[in-house]
Design a protein that fits this description.
Distance between the termini: 29 Å
Number of strands: 15
Number of helices: 9
Radius of gyration: 18 Å
Order of helices and strands: EEEHEHEEEHEHEEEHEHHEEEHH
Strand order of the largest sheet: 5-4-1-8-9-12-13-14-15
Largest sheet: 9 strands, mixed
Structural class: alpha/beta
Strand content: 25-35%
């Protein structure tokens, strides 16, 4: 099986509440490494994103550690890779500062990888692709009924002159969420997304009315909620958090959640169990700082997918 992954790479500099600082690959790398650790070697992950010229060769050497990644869609650009400074005031509240955000990924780079079993689009910077590119992706994949999973992520973030990010609504949110398999967002993003300030239930109802199959709201230590379209009615399922007292670093947990969901759904075509699996994997990631230990996610590798995922 194959999955195509789209989104911007970052170099994360994380200042933790205790004052310690860690540096590691971030952004789309969290999703890429998660897929590489969860999927068996016979599957293929095709990432599409650019890397700054200084980091390009070292990054490609790093990616070669994973036999199931096809790196042909990773390209070099002249400027530096986006540096993201994450300053945590506590375990969840943070200030984000982004510099050197790359140009949107062009459809010409994406088109060769659209014959795939699943597409994961992660709006890492909020400028990863344009709305017009998303429309072209939908047009080219709809006859094949290819599931498109989108993590809204930074689509709700503007950027100030000092490079700090701020929340603001997305006027064209309905076009962004149209005809997706699943739209993922956290609570703050869900609250911010619509200019109408829709509550979660109304946002879910309107999203599912756009021929989108499911909407997931992640809640950090408190787990997540999924709204699923069942015969034109939104069914709500709340999945509790898992051992939140063990959480160390929430950075990248949403990116890990999205990738874990897609890996599981590719194998099962089961939304609710894929959400539960993603909840487990993301909770485990919260015990790890940055992406430095992300290969520990291989403990969840999908070898015997016939075993039902625990809901506890």
């Amino acid at each position: 099986m194959t999955i195509t992954l789209i989104g911007h790479l970052c170099l994360d500099i994380i200042r933790h509440p205790d004052g310690k600082e860690t540096r590691s690959y971030g952004g789309i790398y969290f999703s890429l490494a998660t897929l590489a650790n969860l999927l068996p070697s016979q599957d293929t992950i095709s990432p599409i994103f650019g890397v700054g010229k200084e980091e390009y060769e070292p990054f490609l050497e790093h990616v070669k550690l994973y036999s199931n990644i096809d790196s042909s869609g990773i390209y070099k650009f002249a400027g530096p890779t986006n540096q993201v400074h994450l300053l945590y005031n506590d375990s969840a509240d943070r200030v984000e500062c982004s510099r050197f955000i790359a140009d949107p990924i062009a459809i010409k780079r994406i088109r060769p990888y659209l014959k795939t079993n699943m597409l994961l689009i992660n709006m890492i910077s909020g400028f990863d692709i344009t709305l017009e590119t998303l429309d072209e992706i939908r047009m080219e994949t709809r006859d094949h009924h290819t599931p498109i999973y989108m993590d809204i992520h930074s689509l709700t973030l503007g950027i100030n002159e000092n490079f700090t990010r701020f929340f603001r609504p997305v006027n064209a949110w309905r076009r962004w969420l149209f005809m997706l398999h699943t739209a993922q967002m956290n609570e703050r993003e869900a609250h911010t997304l619509s200019s109408e300030k829709l509550d979660e239930v109304n946002l879910a109802n309107q999203t599912l009315a756009l021929n989108t199959r499911a909407m997931i709201i992640t809640r950090g230590k408190r787990g997540c909620t999924v709204f699923i379209d069942e015969h034109k009615h939104a069914q709500r399922f709340d999945i509790p958090g898992m051992q939140p007292e063990l959480s160390v670093d929430p950075t990248g947990c949403g990116d890990v959640f999205a990738a874990a969901y897609c890996a599981h759904f590719m194998k099962t075509n089961d939304i609710s169990n894929s959400v539960r699996f993603a909840n487990q994997v993301a909770a485990f990631k919260s015990r790890l700082q940055g992406s430095l230990q992300i290969d520990k996610l291989s403990t969840f590798r999908l070898l015997d997918i016939s075993t039902e995922v625990s809901t506890t």
